[in-house]
Design goal:
This protein is α+β, with helices and mostly antiparallel strands. It contains 14 helices and 38 strands. It folds into three domains: about 1-320, Beta-galactosidase, Chain A, domain 5 (Distorted Sandwich), CATH 2.70.98; about 335-415 and about 455-485 and about 520-630, Alpha-Beta Barrel (TIM Barrel), CATH 3.20.20; about 645-729, Immunoglobulin-like (Sandwich). Helix 8 packs parallel to helix 9 and helix 12 (about 590-600) runs parallel beside helix 13. It is globular. Bound molecules: (2R,3S,4R,5S)-2-(hydroxymethyl)piperidine-3,4,5-triol. (2R,3S,4R,5S)-2-(hydroxymethyl)piperidine-3,4,5-triol binds near residues 413, 482, 531 and 547.
């Protein structure tokens, strides 16, 4: 619900459990007043939240109309550069006369039920207008004609707030936008920890929690993709916030390109949180009459700790960000040949893998890198998306048919945004890649990135995919992206528009994806980027799952999946069992651990099952049966991280089905401790009055007992895993 108090000019956004309040102080300053636990009071005024004049005596001003007033720590809802607010601006533009001052004041506003889509950008959505309310507040700079429309949506039941910004140039002259952040929120204190998700290839999203320092702390990307190094997510939590208790504020950007996300703490201990497109490497020339739309920021508050915050993100993304027929249905158990063969395969090898997989219950075979052009290693052929007849003489059609005859679906790997210098595509179109005239084109992984800021290149990418998807029976696409951008430049952009490159690239990518998913609604798309280097909500809008990491080791995955689950649901995480010793870390873990950890996500295998012994094959059959039985609870249940892996030797995740009828507790001992004490695992989120049967033992427990007294467990062996299933009686 969104209320507007006309007399005080205060907007009050309410979701099921939260309130977000801001308004026009003295009809002039757009100030942020409150964000947190839901307020039910009908009458809200400025003095309740902000007695600025009283406490800011050193500002030399006696009232808000005093020209000596400093706004430097007045909590702002949208900050521009050029006035007395000297902190990180939400918006920065340069006008024709060289001035970069913007002064915005109220123009108009509308409040309506539902939520409109964002033009050309991914965003959360409603299926029914009652699910959310939207405020569009328009501000105007009289001198330049720049209008800024701040859009806020309050998702009632889903408990989240989204924000985005539209800039409209109603003036006569072109304006250069240098920064348009999607959300800035001013907190009145600095008593928070900053949690973010740093990582690297094969080590993505390992949460880091640090105290706020005075000054700026920023995580960002200027690599062209959201990246493995940093994720467009952070949380601010109180010092005493835990997994299950305390205030947690989460920020996430629905965007796959360069971003900035951070907090600025000023000398007065106020904290300005911000998230949006990275202003570094960004410029946008806005002609008279044109509009610029920022990506959407998702803001989540929970007073139930990090777990509460994560559950809100999970449900919102699972149900109102992901789209298409695969959003709500169980997806395929797949087998992927990458770690089994790398580039070294032919039809016979692939069919051998498929045959064994079909015998154990796998539903889809994915042919990974190496099926096209002359690609026998990573030196060539990206861009030549026609089959390698030496490896597959009967073509993809024959292979797909033979896989289908085994009762399985067929899936295919592409890396559509790339081109190898050694490819027919590059030889024909050397200007199609990202490059800057007379500069070197660095060839990371022997490849270049295609320039998706160009329409002709986007058309080519679309057509290459279209050709394969419309002629071969392909049920799944793995969309890979294996290097970051460098030597930035586009052959078609004018000199004064080169600064638009990064954002135009992402818009081009999104336009291709939008067309493809609309054209092929029955194809399941999975996004990938050297593992999980583009695990972001932007990609999830087009593809409901992402390959979480190239690190398939069970123990490493415990940490990677934990960090990823801070913001993203398990239903979005591709997770596979691979061979031991593990190819990334050389570790040997039992097949049971590899299976139980992978099956929380979108489950599959990344090995040649012919190489397993009989016991292992039996284990695989059981895993697939278990997954078929429990997958829907892992994916659409509420996640409670009962014990998190930083604690060292044990991790426990609980999933509670929406109706609370099924509860799964997935435990893993990472490092056993001899003769260890008995611990008690207290479950969460159960029906307190119900009785639950533990399937493994046939014993019944009251929901209250499971939550308050807990169930005993002991650490026995390294990588020992157990899945406990409770059924409400
Ligand atoms: C990186 C991906 O993460 C891997 O799974 C695999 O598809 C390779 N690329 C293929 O080049």
């Amino acid at each position: 619900m969104i209320k507007f108090d006309e007399a005080n000019k205060i907007f009050h956004l309410q979701t099921k459990n939260t309130s977000y309040v801001f308004g026009f102080l003295k009809d002039r300053f757009l100030v942020h007043l409150y964000w947190g636990k839901k307020l039910v009071s009908e009458q809200l005024d400025y003095d309740m939240f902000l007695d600025y004049m009283k406490y800011r005596r050193n500002m030399c001003a006696s009232d808000y109309n005093d020209i000596r007033l400093s706004r430097d720590c007045l909590p702002s809802e949208f900050s521009t550069f050029g006035n007395t607010d000297q902190r990180t601006p939400s918006f920065h533009a340069v006008y024709k006369n060289g001035s970069f001052i913007t002064e915005l004041s109220y123009d108009s506003h509308i409040i309506y039920k539902g939520k409109k889509p964002l033009k050309c950008l991914p965003a959360t959505y409603v299926e029914n207008d009652d699910e959310a309310d939207t405020l569009e507040l328009t501000l105007k700079d009289e001198l330049t004609g720049i209008k800024v429309v701040l859009s806020y949506t309050a998702f009632n039941e889903l408990d989240a707030i989204t924000r985005s910004v539209k800039v409209i140039n109603t003036g006569a002259d072109r304006v250069r936008l240098d920064a348009v952040l999607s959300a800035v929120v001013d907190f009145k204190d600095n008593d928070y920890d900053f949690i973010h998700l740093p990582g690297a290839w094969a080590r993505e999203r390992h949460p880091e929690r640090v105290s706020l320092m005075t000054g700026k702390q920023i995580v960002d990307s200027a690599r062209g993709n959201s990246s493995a190094q940093h994720n467009p997510f952070f949380a601010l939590v109180k010092k005493d916030t835990t997994e299950s208790m305390g205030d947690a504020y989460g920020f996430n950007l629905v965007y796959s390109g360069n971003f900035t996300a951070g907090v600025e703490v000023d000398p007065y201990n106020t904290s300005r949180a911000f998230i949006g497109i990275n202003p570094f490497g960004f410029e946008w020339q806005l002609e008279s009459g044109e509009e610029f739309v920022s990506p959407e920021a998702v803001l989540v508050y929970s007073d139930c700790g990090l777990g509460g915050m994560s559950r809100i993100f999970h449900k919102l993304y699972r149900t109102r960000l992901c789209r298409g027929k695969f959003r709500d249905i169980e997806r395929y158990v797949l087998i992927n040949n990458w770690e089994a063969t790398y580039f070294n395969f032919d039809e016979e090898k692939i069919l051998n893998i498929a045959k064994k997989a079909s015998e154990v219950g796998v539903e889809l075979l994915v042919l990974d890198d190496g099926w096209f052009g002359k690609r026998n290693n990573d030196n060539s052929s990206l861009g030549d998306w026609y089959v390698n007849k030496e490896k597959l003489p009967g073509g993809l059609t024959q292979l797909a048919r033979k896989v289908n005859e085994l009762g399985m679906k067929f899936g295919l790997w592409f890396e559509p945004e790339m081109v190898s210098p050694d490819s027919d595509c590059y030889r024909a179109h050397p200007d199609w890649c990202i490059h800057s005239k007379d500069r070197i084109r660095s060839e990371g992984r022997n490849q270049l990135v295609l320039d998706l800021s160009r329409q002709d290149v986007c058309d080519h990418v679309y057509n290459s995919l279209y050709e394969n998807l419309s002629t071969v029976n392909i049920s799944y696409v793995k969309w890979d992206y294996n290097r970051t951008m460098s030597n930035i430049g586009s052959a078609l952009l004018a000199a004064d528009k080169q600064g638009e490159f990064f954002h135009r690239y992402i818009l081009g990518l999104y336009s291709v994806l939008e067309k493809l998913v609309a054209e092929f609604p029955d194809v399941l798309f999975e996004s990938c980027s050297s593992g999980g280097a583009r695990f972001d909500p932007g990609m999830l809008y087009y593809m409901p799952q992402t390959w979480t990491s190239d690190d398939t080791d069970a123990l490493e995955r415990v940490f990677i999946q934990y960090g990823t689950s801070m913001c993203y649901p398990y239903s979005a995480m591709g997770a596979h069992v691979s061979i031991v010793p593990n190819h990334q870390v050389g570790r040997t873990t039992p097949i049971s651990a590899r299976g139980n950890i992978a099956m929380m996500g979108q489950f599959g295998y990344e090995l040649d099952l012919n190489k397993l012994n009989e016991n292992e094959i039996e284990a695989v059959k059981e895993q697939i049966k278990t997954y078929k039985k429990l997958g829907s609870v892992f994916h659409s249940g509420s996640l409670y991280r009962l014990v998190t892996p930083e604690n060292g030797n044990f991790v426990s995740n609980e999933f509670v089905s929406e109706d609370k009828n099924t509860v799964i507790v997935s435990n893993c001992v990472m490092r056993a401790v001899p003769n260890s004490p008995v611990y008690y695992l207290k479950l969460q989120g159960l029906d307190v009055n119900a009785v639950y049967l533990l399937e493994e033992t046939g014993k019944c427990y009251g929901g209250d007992i499971l939550m308050s007294a807990g169930i005993p467990y002991q650490l026995t062996k390294d990588y020992d895993t157990r899945i406990l299933v409770f059924k409400k009686q």
